[in-house]
Design a protein that fits this description.
The protein has 425 residues and is α/β, with parallel strands linked by helices. It contains 14 helices and 16 strands. Helix 7 runs parallel beside helix 9.
Length: 425
């Protein structure tokens, strides 16, 4: 008698992955490696795949973004489909996935920056680091892009709360000159709106002691090596030969616990106390506060899936851990999840599930396939501004027009916001 695994070719397993970010793509990759004939449909609410690889990794870190080439090879395989611009729970009900697939993997990520739980003036200018990075990466859904007041300059002096890699990313992006973004895919218009020139002073505040900071030492070294940037940690310059007349000064201070953020004399005052000593209070004034404290694991994005505990529903990445790890962590967790999915499937009696074919008639007309994504990709590379590797579309309409192969794509003017910042010698 044949086992379920032996009958896989006659009755292929069909798996839906909700989320085409790194965790979802790594999960699809691992599933195909473990069971080459498995059929996979990867859904995403955005018209583009790759999630935080495209919109979360800093735009000047193209080497890290190159992991998307691995994922492209997965989507290029027969039996693996990208289903973009489709929201599960809105366009397609979750129950429909359970009816049409043998298993479902939730890889939706975490979309919202973690909120501060301190005394916070509602009129104070506080920006989430994740929101800012997504804006500079041309995410069409970036919250800052859709502010009623429009994009505003962050000012000459900012405070960043948090000592992880995202905090360093933000400090680096805000302190670079135009020449430092050569070969990147930064959204020049957004960057020049929020930082018309490199920010003059950046304060990075962390609650922990310096040796407990969550950032990679290489990231801090990279920041310190940006021409025209001087970094000090608790008052001590990080490099032996600090920059002369630095364009941007980055002051890192540890053991600073924020207690309030209030408007003060037209600016923003951050009040902190020393870790372990509430009587040692300090005040720091700036134009904007940027929070880099991680992401919210209780967001509405995950709430719709909170009660789904069926045996054939699996979670990976943010929905599983409540945090966004780096690419290496995502890959390992996805591989472990894929093993669990395959063990579950192979332990079941083979049952017919139509997979994506059972849903095609219900998919929106604006659904984006992988082939349509490739048209977007080609169009963004063709329209690249000088010294940029691509210029992304910043609206869903632009993305969908490119996906359809439209000849009437929105024009891309040269970025203009005054003279570009010069590179110091």
């Amino acid at each position: 008698m044949k086992t379920p695994a032996q009958t896989a070719h006659a009755t292929p397993f069909r798996v839906a992955v909700v989320g085409a970010g790194p965790s979802g793509c790594y999960a699809a990759q691992a599933l195909r490696k473990g069971q080459p004939d498995i059929e996979i449909a990867v859904f995403d609410s955005l018209p583009t795949p790759f999630g935080l690889v495209r919109y979360g990794i800093a735009p000047d870190h193209q080497g890290a973004k190159a992991v998307s080439r691995q994922f492209e090879r997965v989507f290029g395989q027969p039996g693996v489909e990208f289903v973009g611009n489709v929201s599960i729970g809105i366009d397609i009900g979750f129950e429909s996935l359970l009816e049409n697939f043998h298993a479902v993997v939730l890889a939706t990520g975490l979309g919202a920056d973690r909120q501060l739980d301190i005394d916070l003036d509602p009129d104070a200018r506080v920006v989430g680091a994740g929101d800012l990075v997504r804006l500079l990466n041309s995410d069409p859904d970036a919250r800052l892009r859709h502010r009623r007041a429009g994009l505003e300059s962050l000012g000459a002096e900012v405070v960043i709360l948090g000592t992880g890699n995202v905090a360093v990313d933000v400090a680096r992006l805000l302190s670079k000159s135009d020449l430092d973004f050569i070969a990147s895919d930064v959204d020049d218009d957004a960057l020049r709106a929020v930082a018309p020139s490199p920010v003059r002073t950046i304060h990075i505040l962390g609650r922990c002691q310096s040796h407990l900071a969550k950032w990679d030492a290489s990231m801090v070294k990279e920041l310190a090596q940006v021409v025209g940037v001087q970094v000090s940690v608790d008052g001590t310059p990080l490099l032996r030969e600090p920059a002369r007349s630095p364009r941007t000064t980055v002051n890192v201070r540890f053991q600073q616990v924020p207690t309030s953020i209030r408007r003060h004399d037209g600016r923003i005052r951050v009040t902190t106390h020393r870790t372990g000593d509430r009587d040692l209070v300090d005040h720091l004034d700036a134009d904007t506060v940027i929070t880099a404290l991680g992401f919210d694991s209780s967001s509405a994005q995950l709430a719709q899936f909170a009660g789904l505990e069926a045996s054939n529903v699996f979670r990976v990445g943010g929905p599983a851990t409540g945090r966004l790890g780096n690419l290496a962590e995502n890959r390992k967790l996805a591989a472990d999840t894929a093993k669990g999915v395959l063990a579950f499937l192979r332990g079941q009696e083979p049952r017919h599930r139509p997979g994506l074919d059972g849903l095609r008639s219900r998919l929106p007309a604006s659904t984006v396939s992988f082939q349509a994504w490739q048209r977007i990709d080609d169009a963004e590379i063709r329209r690249a501004r000088p010294d940029r590797c691509r210029t992304k579309f910043t609206t869903r309409d632009g993305l969908l027009a490119a996906a359809a192969g439209s000849d009437a794509l929105p024009p891309i003017p040269l970025a203009t916001a005054g003279p570009p910042a010069t590179q110091e010698k």
